[in-house]
């Protein structure tokens, strides 16, 4: 037997139970990995609470790093003992997880297991947000909410390396300090941020807003954009944005709005490997510093969710089986 987190119904963090389960068996084209660390991502709180529908019994988790224990039929590019990571598995809140070969990312020697588990989902997200949802160019000014969060700390560093000016929002002094250390040029609190962004940009506004907070920030995010600016709404940590009149994009200055999700930006092996390689290389050569803000034993997944939803975490949150 092995252990995994299992929920039998939607609800609060308490529905996440530590249970004994049969270890999964890799099918054709799959790998079985012994999970060294599983990444916790905000989407799992939406799935757990019922905002996103799932099937029960439900084991959360898309992200993990670990060592291959067994390979299914037809697997050629990976062997038992190799270290791999993924952003696109299922049921990774577990001691063992199955990963499709085409979604497995080889982990370079210079990247440790915790970094490897921390990077794939939020790193690939940061990569597609700044390259593909909206292409940030040197000299652009960017507003990024939750600057000390998992995506926030990675995206800030990548944007600074690109030559952008980065304005972030955060909710505490500790988070402000972390956001600054990641390279943010200006760190704001949420209250009144749209007016402050105008002041900081000589009345013009920013080229792009990356908004993963959603309901609480959406209106002021739109107000922070310059003419022909882009609103990239990529999450809903404060709740979903209510229905919206597209005419507001006209009034705001011919703005554009997109609501992207990672799966659409890793459409094939080439695209996945390109994004992952750039992120892992940046971590291996020190350009990108990865902050694991908290680790929890797997059995304490519920507490990890409480802390993530309670805005108590910074950087990446990991579960350790
Ligand atoms: P974070 O580590 O950024 O945690 C969320 C942060 O949001 C909190 O720490 C908090 O920072 C901020 N926040 C603001 N308001 C609230 C609120 N009411 N309740 C809780 N948190 C709030 O998480 P991630 O980096 O994992 O994800 C950030 C966002 O990106 C999420 O919305 C997530 O769903 C989204 N996402 C989207 C992806 C995509 O492809 N579309 C992929 C990955 C993530 P503070 O206290 O400073 O305000």
UniProtKB/TrEMBL annotation:
A GO cellular component annotation in the UniProt record: cytosol
InterPro entries from the UniProt entry: ADH-like_C (IPR013149), ADH-like_N (IPR013154), ER (IPR020843), GroES-like_sf (IPR011032), NAD(P)-bd_dom_sf (IPR036291), QOR-like (IPR047618), Quin_OxRdtase/zeta-crystal_CS (IPR002364)
SUPFAM superfamilies the UniProt entry points to: GroES-like, NAD(P)-binding Rossmann-fold domains
Residues annotated as domain Enoyl reductase (ER): 11-319
Keyword terms, alphabetized: NADP, Oxidoreductase
GO molecular function: mRNA 3'-UTR AU-rich region binding; NADPH binding; quinone reductase (NADPH) activity; zinc ion binding
Pfam name, any one: ADH_zinc_N
Keyword set includes Oxidoreductase: yes
PROSITE patterns in UniProt: QOR_ZETA_CRYSTAL
Matches recorded under PANTHER family: QUINONE OXIDOREDUCTASE PIG3-RELATED, QUINONE OXIDOREDUCTASE-RELATED
Name this protein carries in UniProt: Quinone oxidoreductase
The species this protein was found in: Paenarthrobacter ureafaciens
Taxonomic classification: Bacteria, Bacillati, Actinomycetota, Actinomycetes, Micrococcales
């Amino acid at each position: 037997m092995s252990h995994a987190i299992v929920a039998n119904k939607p609800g609060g963090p308490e529905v996440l139970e530590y249970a004994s389960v049969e270890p999964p068996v890799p099918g054709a084209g799959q790998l079985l990995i012994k999970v060294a660390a599983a990444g916790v991502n905000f989407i799992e709180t939406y799935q757990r609470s019922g905002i996103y529908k799932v099937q029960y019994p439900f084991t959360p988790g898309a992200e993990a790093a670990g060592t291959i224990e067994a390979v299914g039929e037809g697997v050629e590019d990976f062997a038992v003992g190799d270290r791999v990571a993924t952003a696109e598995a299922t049921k990774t809140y577990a001691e063992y997880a199955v990963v499709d070969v085409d979604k497995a990312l080889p982990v370079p020697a210079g990247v440790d297991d915790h970094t490897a588990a921390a990077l794939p989902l939020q790193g690939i997200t940061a990569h597609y947000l700044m390259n593909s949802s909206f292409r940030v160019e040197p000299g652009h000014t960017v507003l990024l909410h939750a600057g000390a969060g998992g995506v926030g700390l990675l995206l800030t560093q990548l944007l600074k390396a690109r030559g952008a000016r980065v304005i972030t929002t955060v909710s505490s002094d500790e988070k402000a300090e972390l956001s600054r250390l990641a390279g943010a040029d200006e760190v704001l609190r949420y209250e009144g941020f749209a007016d402050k962004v105008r002041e900081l940009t000589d009345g013009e506004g920013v080229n792009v807003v990356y908004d993963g907070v959603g309901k609480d920030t959406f209106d002021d995010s739109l107000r922070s954009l310059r003419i022909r600016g882009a609103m990239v709404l990529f999450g809903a940590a404060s709740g979903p944005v209510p229905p919206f009149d597209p005419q507001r994009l006209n009034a705001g200055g011919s703005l554009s709005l997109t609501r992207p999700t990672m799966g659409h930006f890793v459409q094939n092996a080439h695209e996945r490997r390109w994004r992952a390689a750039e992120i892992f290389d940046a971590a291996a050569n020190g350009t990108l510093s990865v902050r694991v803000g908290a680790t929890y034993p797997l059995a304490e997944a519920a507490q990890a969710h409480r802390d993530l939803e309670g805005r108590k975490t910074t950087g990446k949150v990991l579960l350790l089986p």
